[in-house]
Design brief:
362 residues, mainly alpha, 16 helices, 0% strand
Length: 362
Protein backbone atom coordinates (compact mmCIF):
# COMPACT_ATOMS: atom_id res chain seq x y z
CA UNK A 1 0.00 0.00 0.00
CA UNK A 2 2.75 2.44 0.93
CA UNK A 3 4.70 1.75 -2.28
CA UNK A 4 2.56 4.15 -4.34
CA UNK A 5 1.05 7.54 -3.65
CA UNK A 6 -2.42 6.67 -4.97
CA UNK A 7 -2.52 3.54 -2.81
CA UNK A 8 -1.48 5.59 0.21
CA UNK A 9 -4.27 8.11 -0.40
CA UNK A 10 -6.84 5.34 -0.74
CA UNK A 11 -5.59 3.77 2.49
CA UNK A 12 -5.97 7.07 4.34
CA UNK A 13 -9.56 7.26 3.08
CA UNK A 14 -10.83 3.93 4.33
CA UNK A 15 -8.37 2.84 7.03
CA UNK A 16 -10.45 4.45 9.81
CA UNK A 17 -13.49 2.35 8.89
CA UNK A 18 -11.49 -0.87 8.52
CA UNK A 19 -9.72 -0.53 11.87
CA UNK A 20 -12.93 0.62 13.60
CA UNK A 21 -14.89 -2.38 12.30
CA UNK A 22 -12.04 -4.77 13.15
CA UNK A 23 -11.68 -3.65 16.77
CA UNK A 24 -15.43 -3.55 17.44
CA UNK A 25 -15.91 -7.08 16.08
CA UNK A 26 -12.99 -8.41 18.13
CA UNK A 27 -14.33 -6.83 21.33
CA UNK A 28 -17.79 -8.32 20.67
CA UNK A 29 -16.27 -11.77 20.08
CA UNK A 30 -14.19 -11.54 23.25
CA UNK A 31 -16.68 -9.69 25.44
CA UNK A 32 -17.12 -12.62 27.83
CA UNK A 33 -13.37 -12.90 28.46
CA UNK A 34 -13.06 -9.13 28.75
CA UNK A 35 -15.89 -9.03 31.30
CA UNK A 36 -14.35 -11.85 33.34
CA UNK A 37 -10.71 -10.72 33.22
CA UNK A 38 -10.76 -6.93 32.65
CA UNK A 39 -14.02 -5.84 34.23
CA UNK A 40 -12.68 -2.62 35.70
CA UNK A 41 -11.02 -1.61 32.41
CA UNK A 42 -14.28 -2.36 30.60
CA UNK A 43 -16.22 -0.06 32.95
CA UNK A 44 -13.62 2.72 32.57
CA UNK A 45 -13.71 2.31 28.77
CA UNK A 46 -17.50 2.62 28.74
CA UNK A 47 -17.27 5.77 30.86
CA UNK A 48 -14.68 7.15 28.40
CA UNK A 49 -16.87 6.37 25.38
CA UNK A 50 -19.94 8.01 26.94
CA UNK A 51 -17.91 11.04 27.98
CA UNK A 52 -16.37 11.39 24.49
CA UNK A 53 -19.81 11.17 22.87
CA UNK A 54 -21.04 13.91 25.23
CA UNK A 55 -17.98 16.03 24.40
CA UNK A 56 -18.60 15.56 20.67
CA UNK A 57 -22.08 17.04 21.08
CA UNK A 58 -20.78 20.00 23.09
CA UNK A 59 -17.75 20.87 20.95
CA UNK A 60 -19.00 19.60 17.57
CA UNK A 61 -16.33 16.93 17.19
CA UNK A 62 -16.62 14.83 14.03
CA UNK A 63 -17.61 11.18 14.16
CA UNK A 64 -14.21 10.21 12.78
CA UNK A 65 -12.46 11.71 15.80
CA UNK A 66 -14.92 9.95 18.12
CA UNK A 67 -14.14 6.67 16.36
CA UNK A 68 -10.38 7.19 16.88
CA UNK A 69 -10.70 7.19 20.67
CA UNK A 70 -13.17 4.31 20.54
CA UNK A 71 -10.64 2.27 18.51
CA UNK A 72 -7.87 2.94 21.04
CA UNK A 73 -10.15 2.05 23.98
CA UNK A 74 -11.13 -1.23 22.31
CA UNK A 75 -7.50 -2.04 21.48
CA UNK A 76 -6.51 -1.60 25.11
CA UNK A 77 -9.29 -3.94 26.18
CA UNK A 78 -8.01 -6.58 23.78
CA UNK A 79 -4.47 -6.69 25.23
CA UNK A 80 -3.88 -9.89 27.25
CA UNK A 81 -7.16 -11.23 25.83
CA UNK A 82 -6.35 -11.97 22.18
CA UNK A 83 -3.60 -14.55 21.70
CA UNK A 84 -1.80 -15.38 18.45
CA UNK A 85 0.01 -18.64 17.82
CA UNK A 86 3.44 -18.32 16.24
CA UNK A 87 2.21 -19.26 12.78
CA UNK A 88 -0.35 -16.44 12.60
CA UNK A 89 2.03 -13.99 14.27
CA UNK A 90 4.72 -14.80 11.71
CA UNK A 91 2.27 -14.43 8.82
CA UNK A 92 1.29 -10.94 10.00
CA UNK A 93 4.92 -9.96 10.51
CA UNK A 94 5.87 -11.42 7.11
CA UNK A 95 3.21 -9.32 5.36
CA UNK A 96 4.46 -6.19 7.14
CA UNK A 97 8.06 -7.15 6.28
CA UNK A 98 7.17 -7.26 2.57
CA UNK A 99 5.46 -3.87 2.96
CA UNK A 100 8.55 -2.57 4.77
CA UNK A 101 10.89 -3.64 1.96
CA UNK A 102 8.59 -2.21 -0.74
CA UNK A 103 8.39 1.06 1.17
CA UNK A 104 12.16 1.26 1.56
CA UNK A 105 12.52 0.67 -2.19
CA UNK A 106 9.83 3.16 -3.21
CA UNK A 107 10.19 6.81 -4.19
CA UNK A 108 9.10 8.52 -1.01
CA UNK A 109 9.42 12.12 -2.19
CA UNK A 110 5.65 12.47 -2.44
CA UNK A 111 5.06 11.56 1.21
CA UNK A 112 5.14 13.92 4.14
CA UNK A 113 8.70 13.46 5.43
CA UNK A 114 7.49 12.84 8.98
CA UNK A 115 5.11 10.12 7.75
CA UNK A 116 7.96 8.62 5.75
CA UNK A 117 10.25 8.56 8.78
CA UNK A 118 7.63 7.15 11.14
CA UNK A 119 6.48 4.40 8.75
CA UNK A 120 10.09 3.35 8.24
CA UNK A 121 10.50 3.01 12.01
CA UNK A 122 7.04 1.55 12.78
CA UNK A 123 7.37 -1.38 10.38
CA UNK A 124 10.89 -2.29 11.54
CA UNK A 125 9.96 -4.19 14.77
CA UNK A 126 7.61 -6.45 12.81
CA UNK A 127 10.31 -7.13 10.20
CA UNK A 128 12.86 -7.91 12.90
CA UNK A 129 10.40 -10.25 14.65
CA UNK A 130 9.88 -12.25 11.46
CA UNK A 131 13.51 -12.30 10.36
CA UNK A 132 15.06 -13.18 13.73
CA UNK A 133 12.81 -16.25 13.98
CA UNK A 134 12.47 -18.67 16.89
CA UNK A 135 14.87 -20.02 19.50
CA UNK A 136 14.29 -23.50 18.09
CA UNK A 137 15.18 -22.55 14.50
CA UNK A 138 18.23 -24.09 12.86
CA UNK A 139 21.47 -22.18 13.43
CA UNK A 140 21.89 -21.20 9.78
CA UNK A 141 18.31 -19.84 9.69
CA UNK A 142 19.00 -17.76 12.80
CA UNK A 143 22.28 -16.36 11.44
CA UNK A 144 20.79 -15.42 8.05
CA UNK A 145 17.74 -13.91 9.76
CA UNK A 146 19.82 -11.79 12.12
CA UNK A 147 22.03 -10.57 9.25
CA UNK A 148 18.96 -9.56 7.21
CA UNK A 149 17.48 -7.90 10.29
CA UNK A 150 20.63 -5.82 10.78
CA UNK A 151 20.65 -4.86 7.07
CA UNK A 152 17.04 -3.65 7.22
CA UNK A 153 17.73 -1.78 10.48
CA UNK A 154 20.71 0.04 8.90
CA UNK A 155 18.70 0.70 5.76
CA UNK A 156 15.87 2.08 7.88
CA UNK A 157 18.09 4.45 9.85
CA UNK A 158 19.48 5.84 6.58
CA UNK A 159 15.95 6.46 5.26
CA UNK A 160 14.89 8.05 8.56
CA UNK A 161 17.98 10.26 8.57
CA UNK A 162 17.31 11.34 4.97
CA UNK A 163 13.69 12.15 5.83
CA UNK A 164 14.94 14.41 8.65
CA UNK A 165 12.15 13.13 10.87
CA UNK A 166 13.64 13.86 14.28
CA UNK A 167 10.82 12.16 16.14
CA UNK A 168 11.24 8.92 14.17
CA UNK A 169 15.01 9.05 14.70
CA UNK A 170 14.61 9.37 18.48
CA UNK A 171 11.97 6.63 18.47
CA UNK A 172 14.33 4.32 16.57
CA UNK A 173 17.20 4.99 19.00
CA UNK A 174 15.01 4.37 22.06
CA UNK A 175 13.61 1.20 20.47
CA UNK A 176 17.10 -0.22 19.94
CA UNK A 177 18.18 0.70 23.49
CA UNK A 178 15.14 -0.95 25.09
CA UNK A 179 15.41 -4.01 22.80
CA UNK A 180 18.92 -4.72 24.06
CA UNK A 181 18.31 -3.58 27.64
CA UNK A 182 18.81 -6.17 30.37
CA UNK A 183 15.60 -8.07 31.12
CA UNK A 184 16.19 -7.82 34.85
CA UNK A 185 15.98 -4.03 34.70
CA UNK A 186 12.76 -4.03 32.68
CA UNK A 187 11.18 -6.74 34.85
CA UNK A 188 11.55 -4.57 37.94
CA UNK A 189 7.91 -3.58 38.40
CA UNK A 190 8.52 -0.35 40.34
CA UNK A 191 11.14 0.85 37.85
CA UNK A 192 9.00 -0.02 34.84
CA UNK A 193 5.85 1.60 36.25
CA UNK A 194 7.74 4.84 36.95
CA UNK A 195 9.42 4.64 33.53
CA UNK A 196 6.09 4.40 31.69
CA UNK A 197 4.57 7.16 33.86
CA UNK A 198 7.51 9.45 33.04
CA UNK A 199 7.16 8.84 29.29
CA UNK A 200 3.41 9.48 29.29
CA UNK A 201 3.75 12.53 31.52
CA UNK A 202 6.71 13.94 29.61
CA UNK A 203 4.80 13.88 26.33
CA UNK A 204 2.61 16.78 27.45
CA UNK A 205 5.29 18.43 29.60
CA UNK A 206 7.48 18.62 26.50
CA UNK A 207 4.86 20.80 24.78
CA UNK A 208 4.87 23.37 27.59
CA UNK A 209 8.70 23.38 27.75
CA UNK A 210 9.04 23.74 23.97
CA UNK A 211 6.59 26.67 23.79
CA UNK A 212 8.26 28.35 26.75
CA UNK A 213 11.70 28.04 25.12
CA UNK A 214 10.30 29.53 21.90
CA UNK A 215 8.73 32.44 23.77
CA UNK A 216 12.06 33.13 25.51
CA UNK A 217 14.04 33.02 22.25
CA UNK A 218 16.07 29.88 23.02
CA UNK A 219 17.33 28.28 19.79
CA UNK A 220 20.11 25.96 18.59
CA UNK A 221 20.82 23.51 15.78
CA UNK A 222 19.73 19.90 16.20
CA UNK A 223 22.62 17.38 15.85
CA UNK A 224 22.50 15.16 12.71
CA UNK A 225 19.95 17.49 11.10
CA UNK A 226 19.92 20.70 9.06
CA UNK A 227 16.66 21.74 10.69
CA UNK A 228 16.27 24.46 13.27
CA UNK A 229 15.05 23.60 16.74
CA UNK A 230 11.68 25.07 15.75
CA UNK A 231 9.76 23.79 12.74
CA UNK A 232 6.28 25.31 13.17
CA UNK A 233 5.02 23.10 16.00
CA UNK A 234 5.70 25.90 18.49
CA UNK A 235 3.12 28.15 16.80
CA UNK A 236 0.54 25.35 16.62
CA UNK A 237 1.01 24.35 20.25
CA UNK A 238 1.00 27.94 21.48
CA UNK A 239 -2.27 28.70 19.68
CA UNK A 240 -3.98 25.51 20.86
CA UNK A 241 -2.90 25.96 24.49
CA UNK A 242 -4.11 29.55 24.48
CA UNK A 243 -7.46 28.57 22.94
CA UNK A 244 -7.84 25.62 25.31
CA UNK A 245 -7.03 27.66 28.42
CA UNK A 246 -10.57 28.83 29.12
CA UNK A 247 -13.30 27.59 31.43
CA UNK A 248 -15.69 26.56 28.66
CA UNK A 249 -13.03 24.52 26.80
CA UNK A 250 -11.15 22.99 29.75
CA UNK A 251 -13.54 20.12 30.46
CA UNK A 252 -14.56 19.00 26.97
CA UNK A 253 -11.95 20.53 24.67
CA UNK A 254 -11.94 22.46 21.41
CA UNK A 255 -13.28 19.68 19.21
CA UNK A 256 -11.84 18.34 15.98
CA UNK A 257 -13.41 21.12 13.90
CA UNK A 258 -11.56 23.92 15.64
CA UNK A 259 -10.48 26.49 13.03
CA UNK A 260 -6.73 26.55 13.58
CA UNK A 261 -4.90 29.64 12.27
CA UNK A 262 -1.24 28.61 12.61
CA UNK A 263 -1.45 25.62 10.24
CA UNK A 264 -3.43 24.65 7.16
CA UNK A 265 -5.08 21.63 8.82
CA UNK A 266 -5.87 20.59 12.39
CA UNK A 267 -2.66 18.59 12.89
CA UNK A 268 -1.66 18.83 16.55
CA UNK A 269 1.76 17.09 16.18
CA UNK A 270 1.66 15.67 19.72
CA UNK A 271 -0.44 12.67 20.72
CA UNK A 272 -1.15 13.71 24.32
CA UNK A 273 -1.94 17.31 23.38
CA UNK A 274 -4.28 15.98 20.70
CA UNK A 275 -6.33 14.09 23.30
CA UNK A 276 -6.31 17.07 25.68
CA UNK A 277 -7.35 19.84 23.30
CA UNK A 278 -9.72 17.81 21.11
CA UNK A 279 -11.58 15.84 23.80
CA UNK A 280 -10.91 17.92 26.93
CA UNK A 281 -9.27 17.48 30.31
CA UNK A 282 -11.76 14.93 31.66
CA UNK A 283 -11.34 12.54 28.75
CA UNK A 284 -7.58 13.10 28.76
CA UNK A 285 -7.37 11.94 32.39
CA UNK A 286 -9.55 8.86 31.77
CA UNK A 287 -7.71 7.91 28.57
CA UNK A 288 -4.25 8.42 30.10
CA UNK A 289 -5.16 6.29 33.12
CA UNK A 290 -6.46 3.52 30.87
CA UNK A 291 -3.35 3.63 28.67
CA UNK A 292 -1.02 3.61 31.68
CA UNK A 293 -2.80 0.65 33.29
CA UNK A 294 -2.53 -1.23 29.98
CA UNK A 295 1.14 -0.57 29.29
CA UNK A 296 2.50 -1.36 32.75
CA UNK A 297 1.40 -4.99 32.36
CA UNK A 298 3.55 -5.91 29.36
CA UNK A 299 6.91 -6.09 31.17
CA UNK A 300 5.97 -9.44 32.73
CA UNK A 301 6.03 -11.04 29.25
CA UNK A 302 9.52 -9.96 28.12
CA UNK A 303 11.09 -13.40 28.68
CA UNK A 304 9.80 -14.08 25.19
CA UNK A 305 12.12 -12.16 22.79
CA UNK A 306 9.23 -11.41 20.44
CA UNK A 307 7.17 -9.85 23.18
CA UNK A 308 10.18 -7.77 24.23
CA UNK A 309 10.61 -6.43 20.68
CA UNK A 310 7.04 -5.18 20.68
CA UNK A 311 7.37 -3.71 24.16
CA UNK A 312 10.43 -1.81 22.91
CA UNK A 313 8.44 -0.77 19.82
CA UNK A 314 5.67 0.69 22.00
CA UNK A 315 8.16 2.77 23.98
CA UNK A 316 9.78 3.98 20.77
CA UNK A 317 6.38 4.90 19.32
CA UNK A 318 5.53 6.81 22.49
CA UNK A 319 8.73 8.81 22.03
CA UNK A 320 7.64 9.65 18.46
CA UNK A 321 4.31 10.81 19.92
CA UNK A 322 6.16 13.77 21.49
CA UNK A 323 6.33 15.19 17.96
CA UNK A 324 3.48 13.53 16.04
CA UNK A 325 -0.07 12.26 16.48
CA UNK A 326 1.12 8.80 15.41
CA UNK A 327 -0.99 7.11 18.10
CA UNK A 328 -4.13 8.63 16.59
CA UNK A 329 -3.32 8.76 12.85
CA UNK A 330 -5.67 6.16 11.43
CA UNK A 331 -3.39 5.39 8.49
CA UNK A 332 -0.51 4.33 10.77
CA UNK A 333 -1.87 3.69 14.29
CA UNK A 334 -2.48 0.04 13.40
CA UNK A 335 1.21 -0.54 14.20
CA UNK A 336 0.81 0.81 17.73
CA UNK A 337 -2.36 -1.25 18.21
CA UNK A 338 -0.70 -4.45 17.00
CA UNK A 339 2.40 -3.76 19.10
CA UNK A 340 0.23 -3.37 22.23
CA UNK A 341 -1.51 -6.69 21.57
CA UNK A 342 1.64 -8.56 20.50
CA UNK A 343 3.64 -7.31 23.50
CA UNK A 344 1.31 -9.27 25.80
CA UNK A 345 1.00 -12.26 23.49
CA UNK A 346 1.64 -15.62 25.12
CA UNK A 347 1.96 -18.43 22.60
CA UNK A 348 2.70 -22.06 23.26
CA UNK A 349 5.86 -22.44 21.21
CA UNK A 350 7.52 -19.25 22.39
CA UNK A 351 6.86 -20.08 26.05
CA UNK A 352 6.81 -23.86 26.22
CA UNK A 353 9.86 -23.97 28.49
CA UNK A 354 8.70 -21.15 30.71
CA UNK A 355 6.58 -21.21 33.80
CA UNK A 356 2.96 -20.63 32.92
CA UNK A 357 1.95 -17.01 33.42
CA UNK A 358 -1.47 -16.55 34.90
CA UNK A 359 -3.59 -13.62 33.78
CA UNK A 360 -4.25 -11.16 36.53
CA UNK A 361 -7.68 -9.64 36.84
CA UNK A 362 -7.97 -5.84 36.96
Amino acid sequence: MYSSYSAYNRLCGYSLYVVFFMTIVLVILEIKNIFNQKRFSLIVSLILIISVLLASIINNTGLGSVAILLILACAMLLTEIIKFDNKLLNIICFIITIGDILFLLSKKTYYNTNVCGYLTFAMLPFSMTFLEGEKEDRKIRKIVGIILSVIIAIWSIIVIQNSESRGALLGFIVFIIVKFCNNGVLKNKKFYNVFIALILGSTLAFVFLYVRMWNQGVDFKIPFSDKSLYSGREAIWSELLEAYNSKENFLYGLGSKYNIQSFKVMNVHNSSLYILVIYGGLNFIIYSGLLYSTLIKNNKYISNPKNKIFMAAIIGMLVVSFFETNIEWTDVNIYFILAMIFSCNINEKGNKNEKKIQRIDD
